[in-house]
Specification:
heterodimer; A: 326 residues; mainly alpha; two-stranded antiparallel ribbon; 13 helices; 4% strand; globular; B: 502 residues; alpha/beta; six-stranded mixed beta sheet; 17 helices
Chain lengths: 326, 502
C-alpha cells in the first residue's frame, strides 16, 4: 500500500487534473443537456486534436527544461507548403521541370521541412547556447516571415477532396484528426515510458549536469526533441489546412500559448524533469471542454481567454501547494 | 551561558533528539562532535529559532527562552553560520553585511558612505583589507566566510554557531579563522564549533560535547581527552582505519597520462593544470591529495573528457592512445567518474534509485533495439542495491530520500554497472559518517583486488594513507609528488601540497 513518494507525485499531477476534468464535465452536464452527447464529445475531441499534437511535442521539449515558441508559425509555414506543393507542385520552367505531389507526398514534405526547422532550433540552442526562449522566439518571427513570402500574403485554397478528408473526414465514426492525435499520443507515451530516449529526456530535465556526466549525449537528445516538436506542429498544419481547405498566412497564431497551457495545466513543470504526456492530453481536453462549455452556455467568446488564463494559474497554484505538502 | 535542558524532538515519529542536556560556556570554544545523524544540526536549529516545536527548555543567561522564529533568536544574540554560505554573489561585501538592515539617511535614501565605513571597520577586525564594494563572487571561499562572520559581528551576536567552517578553505585561511575565533573568545562570546575534523578541534576547542543518535553521551574539557577516546564515544566502538599494505606488485599499465595541461577558462595565458604525467596500473589505488584549488577535480574532469577545448596532452588506456573529448568517449574507454558533488553532479534526485543506477547502461537493457526491458532493469539494479548495501525501502524510492552515504552508493553503483577498468573517485566520502566511510573504503579495496585501477581524490590525509597504494600530491596545478604509500609520511605529503618548490 505504501507508494513511494516519487511515483506518487508523478501520478499526483495527472490525478488532480483528471479529477478537475471530471468535475468540469459533471458541472457542465448539469448546466446544459447539450453537453453530454456523443456528437458534442466528438466535436470537442476534433477541436482539441491539433492542440494535442502540438502540445505533445511541447511536452517533450519542456521536459528537457526547454520551450518552443515557434510552433504556431511552423504550423502555418508547413501548412502553406503542403497546400502549395499539392496545388502547384515544384515548377522550374527554365529547366522544364515539374514535380507533382500527392496528398501523402505533400504532407510528408511538410513534416520533413518542419523537422528541419525544429532541428535548426535545437542546433542553435546547443551549439551557441542561445536560450530556447530567445531562439524559438526568433524562429517564430522568421517562420511567419517565410510563410508570408511563400503565400504572397494570400490564402492557398481549393486543395481537393482527397486532401480535405484529413481534416474533415471520419473513420469508423471518429474524426480523422482525432485518430491522428491518438496515434501521436500513443507514440509519445511509448517513447517517454519505454525507450532510452524517454529516460534521457527526463534525466536532462531533472539534472542536466548529472546527465552529462553519466555519458548522455545532451545535444543530440535536445535536437531530437525540438525536431519532433516542430514535426508535430507541421502535422498540425496539415490538419488545419485540410479542415479549412485553405492555407491561411495567419494560421496558427498563438497556438504555442494553447500548447504551453495544456502542458502546464497537465502538471508538467517548466523547469523540466517532471511531468507526463498523459497530463498534457488531459490539460488539452480541459481547455477544449471549457471552451465548448462556454459556447454551449452562450457566454461571450471573449470570456474564453479570461477563463483559460484563470485555469492555468489555478492549476499551477494547486501544483505548488501540493509540492509544499510533500 | 546557553544551555539545553531535556530537549527532545521528533520528526513524524522518528526521534532526532532525546533528552539533550548540555551547557555552552562563554569565553570558550565549545565543540559539538558527532557523526552524521547524531543530531547536531537539529539541536543548532532549535537554538537558532529555526525549529520551534520541541520538548524541553533553552536556558539563556539564566532565563528560560522560547523563540518563535529565527529573527527572534537573532535579536537575542544567537547567530549561526551555515556550511553553505548565505551570501548574494552579485552584491558587494557591504551590501551583504547590511542586507535587511540597511542604513538610510533622513530622506530614506541608502547611506552607502556610512555602510562602507562600518564595513571597512568590521573587515579590519578580521584581517580582511578588501574594498567593501567588491562583489562576493570575486572573493575566495575563505574570504566569503569572513564576510559571513562580519555579518554576525555587526549584529553583536553573543552566541556564534559555526557549522563545519573549515570544509572549504585552505590551511592558511584556517589559521586566520582560528585567530579570529580566539579573539572572539576573549571578548566573552560563546563559540559553538561543529566539525568532523578531530585534529582541528584539538587545536581550537576548549570544551567538547559528544552526541550520538540524538543523545548526549559525554561533555568535558578538550584537553582532558584523547582522539581515540573521542572516536569511541562518537561511534560506540573502536574505529581505527588500518593502514593499507601497499600493493607493490608490478601489473599491467591501465592508464597513462602524459603532459596534460588545462588552460584557464578566462585568462588564456594561465594554466589550471601544468604538465601532469603519471601512470595507473591494474589493481592499483592512487590517492590524489592536495589543497583546495590544487586542480585535483579539474584533472579528473580532464581525463573524463569534460574540457576538450582547453586541454592538451595524451591519455592512453591499455597502452593505446585515446582521444577523450567527452564523457561518452571516456565511458567507451572504460573510465567512470564519481563526481565531487553527488547532489548536483551525480544524481537526479527526483528520480528513483533504480533509474539513477541504470542511466549509464540503458543500451544494455534494450530489447529489439528500442524498448527498455523493465524486468531486466529491476534485476540488475536490485543486484547492485544488495551488493553495495544501499539502504532503501525499494528501488522505486526517490533518490532524494536516502541518506548521504547511501546516495553516494547509488552513484558508485551506476558506474560499477558500466564495468569500468578505471574508476575516478572525487572525494567519495565527503559529508558521510564514519560507518559509511569504512564501507566505502572496503568496497574500493575489493574493487582494486578484482583488478580495477582507481584514482581517489581526497582532502583527508588519514583516508589517503588508509586506502592508497601510491599517493600523488598536487599543488597549484602541478604534480609535486608521486610515491608509494609506505615510503612517505603525513607530514611529507602535507609539505608537497603546500609548496611547489621543493
Amino acid at each position: 500500500m505504501k507508494q513511494s513518494i516519487s511515483s506518487y507525485s508523478k501520478n499526483f499531477g495527472r490525478f488532480q487534473s483528471l479529477v478537475a476534468l471530471l468535475v468540469l464535465c459533471i458541472v457542465l452536464s448539469l448546466l446544459t443537456d447539450k453537453f453530454f452527447t456523443a456528437a458534442n464529445g466528438l466535436n470537442v475531441l476534433r477541436q482539441v486534436a491539433v492542440n494535442i499534437c502540438i502540445a505533445t511535442g511541447m511536452t517533450l521539449i519542456v521536459l528537457t527544461a526547454g520551450i518552443d515558441l515557434s510552433v504556431g508559425s511552423v504550423l502555418a509555414l508547413c501548412g502553406a507548403i503542403t497546400a502549395g506543393l499539392l496545388k502547384n507542385g515544384i515548377q522550374l520552367p527554365s529547366a522544364d521541370l515539374f514535380i507533382g505531389f500527392t496528398v501523402l507526398g505533400a504532407a510528408l514534405a511538410a513534416v520533413i521541412i518542419g523537422s528541419f526547422l525544429g532541428w535548426f532550433n535545437g542546433f542553435v540552442i546547443t551549439s551557441f547556447k542561445v536560450p530556447p526562449f530567445v531562439t524559438t522566439l526568433a524562429m517564430l518571427t522568421i517562420a511567419r516571415g517565410f510563410t508570408m513570402l511563400y503565400t504572397g500574403g494570400h490564402p492557398i485554397s481549393n486543395l481537393g477532396e482527397s486532401f480535405g478528408y484529413i481534416g474533415a473526414g471520419s473513420l469508423a465514426g471518429i474524426p480523422v484528426p482525432v485518430w491522428i492525435a491518438a496515434i501521436v499520443v500513443l507514440l509519445a507515451l511509448f517513447i517517454t515510458k519505454k525507450t532510452k530516449l524517454g529516460r534521457y529526456i527526463y534525466a536532462i530535465g531533472g539534472n542536466e549536469t548529472a546527465a552529462k556526466l553519466s555519458g548522455i549525449r545532451i545535444n543530440r537528445v535536445k535536437m531530437t526533441v525540438y525536431s519532433i516538436g516542430a514535426a508535430l506542429a507541421a502535422i498540425g498544419g496539415v490538419i488545419v489546412t485540410s479542415r479549412l481547405d485553405s492555407a491561411q498566412p495567419n494560421a496558427g497564431i498563438s497556438y504555442e500559448l494553447d500548447a504551453i497551457a495544456a502542458v502546464v495545466i497537465g502538471g508538467t513543470s517548466l523547469n523540466g524533469g517532471k511531468g507526463s504526456v498523459w497530463g498534457t492530453v488531459i490539460g488539452a481536453v480541459i481547455i477544449g471542454v471549457l471552451n465548448n462549455g462556454l459556447v454551449l452556455l452562450n457566454v461571450s467568446p471573449f470570456w474564453q481567454q479570461v477563463v483559460k488564463g484563470g485555469v492555468i494559474l489555478l492549476a499551477v497554484i494547486i501544483d505548488k501547494v501540493g509540492e509544499k505538502k510533500e | 551561558m546557553l544551555a539545553a535542558k531535556n530537549i527532545s524532538k521528533k520528526f513524524s515519529g522518528v526521534t532526532a533528539l532525546s533528552n539533550i542536556n548540555l551547557e555552552l560556556h562563554p569565553g570558550r570554544v565549545n565543540a559539538i562532535i558527532g557523526e552524521n545523524g547524531a543530531g547536531k544540526s537539529t539541536l543548532m536549529k532549535i537554538f537558532s529559532g529555526v525549529y520551534t516545536q520541541y520538548e524541553g527548555e533553552i536556558i539563556y543567561n539564566g532565563k528560560q527562552v522560547k523563540f518563535s522564529n529565527s529573527k527572534e533568536a537573532e535579536l537575542a544574540g544567537i547567530a549561526i553560520i551555515h556550511q553553505e554560505l548565505n551570501l548574494v554573489p552579485y552584491l558587494s561585501i557591504s551590501e551583504n553585511i547590511f542586507l535587511g538592515r540597511e542604513i538610510t539617511n533622513a530622506l530614506g535614501i541608502l547611506d552607502k558612505k556610512q555602510m562602507n565605513k562600518k564595513t571597512k571597520l568590521l573587515l579590519s577586525r578580521l584581517n580582511l583589507p578588501i574594498d567593501p564594494d567588491t562583489k562576493i563572487a570575486a572573493l575566495k571561499v575563505g574570504q566569503q566566510q569572513l564576510v559571513e562572520i562580519a555579518r554576525v559581528l555587526y549584529s553583536n551576536a553573543s552566541v556564534i554557531i559555526m557549522d563545519e567552517p573549515t570544509s572549504a578553505i585552505s590551511d592558511k585561511e584556517v589559521d586566520n579563522l582560528f585567530s579570529i575565533i580566539r579573539h572572539l573568545r576573549s571578548e566573552g562570546k560563546i563559540i559553538v564549533y561543529i566539525s568532523h575534523k578531530l585534529k582541528e578541534l584539538f587545536a581550537i576547542a576548549d570544551r567538547y560535547v559528544v552526541l550520538r543518535d540524538g543523545n548526549t553521551i559525554d561533555a568535558g574539557d578538550m584537553h582532558a581527552i584523547t582522539q581515540d577516546e573521542l572516536i569511541r564515544k562518537m561511534t560506540g566502538r573502536n574505529m581505527g582505519i588500518e593502514k593499507r599494505e601497499a600493493n607493490s606488485g608490478q601489473s599491467e599499465e591501465l592508464l597513462s597520462v602524459k603532459k596534460v595541461c588545462l588552460k584557464h577558462p578566462v585568462v588564456s595565458t594561465k594554466n589550471i593544470l601544468s604538465d601532469i604525467s603519471f601512470t595507473l596500473h591494474k589493481g592499483e589505488i592512487l590517492g590524489l591529495y592536495g589543497l583546495m584549488g590544487a586542480g585535483r577535480t579539474e584533472l579528473m574532469e580532464t581525463i573524463f573528457g569534460l574540457h576538450p577545448k582547453r586541454a592538451s596532452g595524451e591519455v592512453a588506456v591499455n597502452k593505446k592512445l585515446r582521444k577523450i573529448n567527452s564523457p561518452v568517449n571516456a565511458i567507451d574507454a572504460g573510465i567512470g567518474l564519481v563526481p565531487e558533488d553527488r547532489k548536483l553532479q551525480g544524481l537526479i534526485l527526483g528520480q528513483t534509485v533504480r533509474s539513477n543506477i541504470s542511466v549509464t547502461i540503458l543500451q544494455k537493457l534494450q530489447q529489439w533495439g528500442l524498448m527498455l526491458n523493465s524486468r531486466k532493469e529491476k534485476e540488475l539494479t536490485g543486484n547492485y542495491i544488495s551488493k553495495l548495501g544501499i539502504k532503501t525501502s525499494s528501488g522505486a524510492n526517490a533518490a532524494r530520500n536516502l541518506s548521504g552515504g547511501n546516495q553516494q552508493k547509488i552513484v558508485l553503483a551506476k558506474w560499477l554497472a558500466t564495468n569500468p577498468q578505471i574508476l575516478l573517485l572525487d572525494e567519495p566520502t565527503r559529508g558521510i559518517d564514519i560507518n559509511a566511510k569504512t564501507e566505502i573504503y572496503k568496497l574500493v579495496r575489493s574493487l582494486a583486488a578484482e583488478g580495477m585501477g582507481i584514482i581517489m581524490v581526497s582532502s583527508e590525509l588519514p583516508e589517503i594513507l588508509a586506502v592508497s597504494d601510491r599517493v600523488l600530491v598536487m599543488c597549484e596545478g602541478e604534480l609535486t609528488a608521486n610515491m608509494p604509500i609506505d615510503k612517505v609520511s603525513e607530514a611529507e605529503i602535507l609539505k608537497y601540497a603546500i609548496a611547489k618548490n621543493n
